[in-house]
């Protein structure tokens, strides 16, 4: 999953009730926090005190799975997680929580990477309404002492997921030059070469989309 | 890399980060990484009437790719040094 998919539904989990990870790509769980509630969108007044979910933070995404409904869950990849913060002022929101902003799926910048292999995911979005339009999400742990550790793990994992280099094109590419790659050492070279592969795919699909849009219009 | 080096110098100073979704947040720059992910502390939202729910946020992590502008404190900018660094970067040396 190279593209920033925004918020997606998670309707399947493994036999142990845990999220299915892309272990082949090295995805692993960094934090599990039980008894976490979730509030999507800006419906801060409709919070129903539902703590019955479990938050999983992996090296690639943030996943919340309901404890009550085994087919209910949500995930946001780190490429889509624009901002996260600790919110403690109960005047603005009744409970201390992790506040997040999600890049919408309809953002032009993030549409370029959608590829046709992810049909199952697209149908899930359709089934669960307008998840791709959700731009705010609150995670409310029953134990508010956990906020700081959740925040720190989110920071660390977000840093593991830089954008594919192609998205910087036209505004930032000039400071990703060859000298910088060399100066950055072997680790960075590995990361960059992976990104270049991804960039190629992204650009291909973007051009296809552009042509289709022109023909349709 | 210039921006990364430069922003590191601004740690501890107050900056305003404007996101691509128009939200602008002022706060003390806590840290910045090579992807220009930015951590702010003691934050406040510039346009509070438009984003009242953001008032409760006192520290935040902003993904580098969603940042549109970073407004710098005037006293944190040494224009001469920045000019030189920018020229050197442009020459690729």
UniProtKB/TrEMBL annotation, chain A:
<protein>
    <submittedName>
        <fullName>Uncharacterized protein</fullName>
    </submittedName>
</protein>
Automatic annotation (TrEMBL), chain B:
<protein>
    <submittedName>
        <fullName>Uncharacterized protein</fullName>
    </submittedName>
</protein>
């Amino acid at each position: 999953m190279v593209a920033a998919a925004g918020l997606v539904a998670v309707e399947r989990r493994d036999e142990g009730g845990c999220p299915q990870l892309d272990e082949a790509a090295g995805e692993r769980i960094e934090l599990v926090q039980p008894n976490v509630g979730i509030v999507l969108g800006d419906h801060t007044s409709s919070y129903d005190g539902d703590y019955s979910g479990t938050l999983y933070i992996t090296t690639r995404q943030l996943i919340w799975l309901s404890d009550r409904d085994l087919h209910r869950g949500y995930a946001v990849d780190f490429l889509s997680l624009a901002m996260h913060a600790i919110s403690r002022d109960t005047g603005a929101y009744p409970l201390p929580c992790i506040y997040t902003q999600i890049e919408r799926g309809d953002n032009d910048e993030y549409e370029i990477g959608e590829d046709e292999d992810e049909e199952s995911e697209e149908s899930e979005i359709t089934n669960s309404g307008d998840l791709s339009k959700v731009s705010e999400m609150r995670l409310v742990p029953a134990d508010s002492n956990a906020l700081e550790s959740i925040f720190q793990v989110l920071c660390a994992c977000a840093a593991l997921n830089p954008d594919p280099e192609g998205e910087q094109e036209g505004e930032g590419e000039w400071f990703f030059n060859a000298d910088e790659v060399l100066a950055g050492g072997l680790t960075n070279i590995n990361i960059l070469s992976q990104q270049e592969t991804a960039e190629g795919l992204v650009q291909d699909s973007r051009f296809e989309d552009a042509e289709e849009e022109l023909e349709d219009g | 890399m210039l921006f990364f080096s430069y922003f590191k110098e601004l740690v501890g100073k107050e900056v305003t980060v404007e996101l691509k979704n128009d939200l602008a947040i002022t706060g003390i720059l806590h840290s910045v990484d090579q992807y220009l992910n930015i951590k702010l502390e003691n934050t406040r939202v510039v346009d509070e009437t438009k984003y009242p729910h953001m008032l409760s946020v006192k520290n935040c992590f902003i993904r580098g790719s969603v940042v549109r502008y970073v407004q710098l404190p005037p006293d944190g900018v040494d224009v001469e040094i920045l000019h030189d660094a920018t020229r050197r970067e442009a020459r690729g040396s």
